[in-house]
Amino acid sequence: MEKNRDERFMRQALLEAKEAYNRDEVPVGVVVVCNDRIIARGHNLTETLNDVTAHAEMQAITSAAGVLGGKYLTGCTLYVTLEPCVMCAGALGWSQISRIVYGASDDKRGFRKYAPEILHPKTEVLGGILQEECAQLMQDFFKNKR
After folding, report:
1. Kind of pairing, strands 99-104 and 124-127?
2. For 67, phi and psi rounded to 5 degrees?
3. Please, which residues bridge with residue 104 across strands?
4. Where are the beta strands (DSSP E) in the chain?
């Protein structure tokens, strides 16, 4: 049951990643789920906003906090198509998010390589959900850039 839920919400994150792809942004997408309901969506906007901090996760954290009326995302799950970077993982740690589910690993810039302890100690992490689809979107994007 949990696997089906994770895949269903990751498909929503993939839709956000495809929106980023269509905007010529690095195709990372995210949704934040609370009580089995999507409360925030986001995708990379670094090119659009000319802002290196405008990652999908940062957009979604801000949006979700606004919906909940507070800075903590306890009880929420963040679904993201790519393993978060250290900046985003740090922000997710401060938000005290309960769970992070990601698609593809990021061996070059992912938080697990540089700061595996950066998240809140109670945050659960699960990787590899729809990994192939998430990775393929990134590969296609960068192949088209070369």
Report:
1. parallel
2. -65, -45
3. 82
4. 29-34, 37-43, 76-82, 99-104, 124-127
Catalytic residue among 16, 25, 57, 83: 57
d(CA 3, CA 43): 23
Phi, psi of 24 (to 5 degrees): 65, 35
- Position 114 confidence tier, pLDDT thresholds 50, 70, 90: very high
Closest among 82, 124, 125, 134 to 107, alpha carbons compared: 82
Sheet holding 124-127, edge to edge: 37-43, 29-34, 76-82, 99-104, 124-127
What angle is formed at CA 41 by the lines to CA 52 and CA 2, rounded to 5 degrees? 120
Length of the chain: 146
Alpha carbon 5 to its chain centroid, in Å, reads 16
57 assigned to active site: yes
pLDDT tens-place string over residues 60-108: 999 999 999 999 999 999 999 999 999 999 999 999 999 999 999 999 9
Report whether 13 contacts 79 (CB < 8 A).
yes
**Amino acid letter for position 72:** Y
Amino acid letter, residue 125: V
